[in-house]
Amino acid sequence: MATLAYPYPNLFPYIESKCLWSYSVDGEGHKEFKEPLSNWDYNASLEIKCKLTWDIRDIFEQANLLTIINYSKIAIIEISSPGQICSSRKKIFDYPLIDFKKLPDQIILKINSLNNSSNIQFRLIIYTENCELNRFKYKKGSILYDEISTLVLEGERARISLQRWDFKDFNNENAMWFVRFDPKNLYQTFNETYTLFLNSNKKNLEDQIRRSIHLKDALKTDFVITIMCSTLLNEDLDIDLDEDYPESSLGFQIKEWLKDFGIESKTNLEKFKFEITYNQNIVKRKCQNLFCSDFD
User: Fold this and answer.
1) Would you say 80 and 116 are in contact if contact means Cβ atoms under 8 Å apart?
2) Which residue has the higher pLDDT, 13 or 164?
3) Is 210 a member of any domain?
4) Alpha-carbon gap, residue 170 to 179, rounded angstroms
5) Which helix (H) or strand (E) holds 128?
6) What CATH number is attached to the domain comprising 68?
7) Phi, psi for residue 240 in degrees, rounded to 5
8) Are residues 193 and 132 in the same domain?
9) In a domain, 84, yes or no
10) Where in the sequence is the domain holding 167, given as residue range(s)?
């Protein structure tokens, strides 16, 4: 592995293979990161397992760094929506190697899946505190080893942020679903802006939606209309057709839907906003025409 980025004695040349990363959704069996998530939603329980493919002490010994193992730590950093404006990172595991004998060869972590979207990166690092070896002074945070693995949550199609709720709390106990839309800005990750609520009093509603193309179409058009109209009529969310919004952002998704409606100019956008305001039935019919299934 490359050592050029860290011009001091480190572990890179002695670690020949990356860790083995796997995931489990809702307590199911673990699968490798390369296998797609087939049943993901944003309220699922997500467990990550990182299996070390090398022995910590042996690696330090091979690198002639055993003297500083007591001044070193192994950590894992979670990077949500990497590369996007709304990305975040946090250290979710940090273990001092002075107790390396107690370090399990498999690190298991529970991940808060809510609001994670597109993909999550996990960065494993081994780093030092302030220490010295052969007159070389390692500063706190000096990297001895570094690797990144990515878990793709959505694949080619984004999954829906979903919650089940007793609609009696909303005084709408006979309703099937509603979309709560609460955006902060157009650069926000799309799946952070909304939640689809399903009525938990409707038995087997999810199964019925999966089996019924008509229910799927009704849900899809309601979803698109709610979010698109709410965005375009919100003066604080002024969509710019010339702006390159990040993929997976609200602005990007709205622009994609507007293209489906044939709206790619400011003039047409203003006409469309007028229709939404004063004749939304026309917009709903157009939406059904675009997003409902074709039975021909």
Assistant:
1) yes
2) 13
3) yes
4) 13
5) strand 119-128
6) 2.60.40
7) -110, 115
8) no
9) yes
10) 162-291
What is the CB-side half-sphere exposure of residue 187 using CA atoms within 13 A?
Answer: 7
Average pLDDT over residues 123-134: 95
Element (H, E) at 289: helix 280-291
**Does 118 share its domain with 224?**
no
Q: Report which residue type is found at 223.
A: F
Taking 90 as the threshold, does the pLDDT of residue 217 lie above it?
A: no
CA–CA dist 251, 51 (Å, integer): 38
pLDDT digits (tens, 9 = 90+) for 245-266: 887 789 999 999 999 899 989 9
Tokens of 241: 């057709």
**Cα 78 from chain centroid (whole Å):** 11
- The residue from 131, 152, 173 where one domain ends is 152
Residue with tokens 């709206």: 263
- What is the rounded CA–CA span in Å between residue 30 and residue 21? 9
Q: Residues 121, 111, 160, 231: is their CA dihedral positive or negative?
A: negative
Length of the chain, in residues: 296
